[in-house]
Amino acid sequence: MLASTSAIEDLPTAPGRLPGLGHAAALLRSRLRFLDSLHRCGPLVRVDLPGLRCWAVTSPELVHEIAADADSFGRGVSLAEEERVAGRRATAVHGRTRTAWSDPAASGWLDAVREAGADIARRWADAPRVDVLRAMDELVLSAIDRAVLAGRLGQRDTAEIHRLLPDIRRDAVLRTLLPEGLARLPTATHRRVARAGRDLQSLVDDVLCRAPARGSADPIAALTRGRARGGPADLRRDIVDTVFATTSGTAATLAWTLHELARRPELQDRLHRELDEVLDGGPATADVLDSLVRTRRILTEVLRLYAVPLVARRCRREVVLGGVRFPEGSELLCSPHAVHRDPEHYLRPDLFDPDRWLAGGAPVDGAFLPFGTGGQRCSGDQVVYRECLVALAALLARRRVVPAAGARVRTTAGGSVVPSGLRLAVLPR
Length: 429
Ligand code: HEM
Fold this sequence. Notes:
Layout: E1 6-7, H1 24-29, H2 31-37, E2 44-49, E3 52-57, H3 60-68, E4 73-75, H4 80-86, H5 93-102, H6 104-107, H7 109-123, E5 127-131, H8 132-147, H9 155-169, H10 172-177, H11 180-183, H12 188-209, H13 219-225, H14 231-263, H15 265-279, H16 293-305, E6 311-315, E7 319-321, E8 324-326, E9 331-334, H17 336-340, H18 381-396, E10 399-403, E11 410-413, E12 417-420, E13 423-428
Parallel strand pairs: 1-8, 3-9
Antiparallel strand pairs: 2-3, 4-6, 5-13, 6-9, 7-8, 10-13, 11-12
């Protein structure tokens, strides 16, 4: 077995390496283009960053192997970012997060998303130019407030979170890949981002000290009681994690979906027809969500096309992957964004085509990984489709979106990929 393996030194190195900087400059210049190009070098490619050597895994088959072996591959470098924002590593937290409030049956999370979406749709009665990403951030924050914080989040807090979000999202990819020393260099950006993380933590601390604004059932009291350890500090971190996960994940996905629908009137017509047939003027409740099959395909295509730039794994022991022996501690990078746009697996990969999902799931195992893979896979994955379906139904049942004049959408790739500058006009149907 060992005789047929090769060593990591034999693997190709990605083009664009500079002395001292490695591939950092290429990543900074255009991280998505750089990551998307790596599959051309082979299934395993060396990528150098200052003080850190990594190997990009570009083949779905190898990604699938990693997913299947949670014992050998642990969390890699990329979650350092969440750690910086939340104040510690986001381990097991989300097992609790999911049962505590992301579980729609237990917590009314879907009701909260529906109400938040309906509020926004009402305000969109006459909206010639909506900042869509901001509106979707507002939707998820309002849902967190309703389902978890019992109305403790005031308008000022929400405005403050909106102010902090761009810094919290900014440039996560490179900073997460930088070794700790470099990431903490006191550059203006690093200082601003670190401050944003601290400000979000203390805002949540303040919010948790308040009495609930309305209603008798207070999830916070129950959640604090239910904690085996950590108490309020632990709860604060769960909430910060959830703000981070829902704004960079759910809100971005909803914004991209509205963007694609606005550009494709016939697709939006099909979505409206399905909403009419399935909901018949009523709300999107949990029992009908499985019937929204076309809308689900649209979401799947959004999750394919606008996937996160990177997930990372570290070898917990020596492993053989793709015939190459990786020593314990080797850092592996996998780009869901790049895998999803690889023409070897997706026909015309840059085309937004929800019908490519008519035949079922991914073309090969490991080729669809919007929620990451293996033991560190996103723990929000079960709820994401349901919350997005509920939100879209609330937003679009009586509304139609069209591009706003003069708006230019830019793809901004941080920890996730978000549509900067997206503005839409909202019309009655
Ligand atoms: C469209 C929405 C979302 C997308 C695309 C998304 C995507 C991801 C991805 C790619 C990862 C990294 C997984 C890996 O390293 O293999 C991740 C991790 C994570 N996500 Fe999400 N996510 C979304 C929404 C959510 C929501 C709503 C929650 C919970 C409130 C959540 C909680 C988490 C947690 C806790 C982790 C870390 C898991 C761990 O390290 O054990 N995510 N997510």
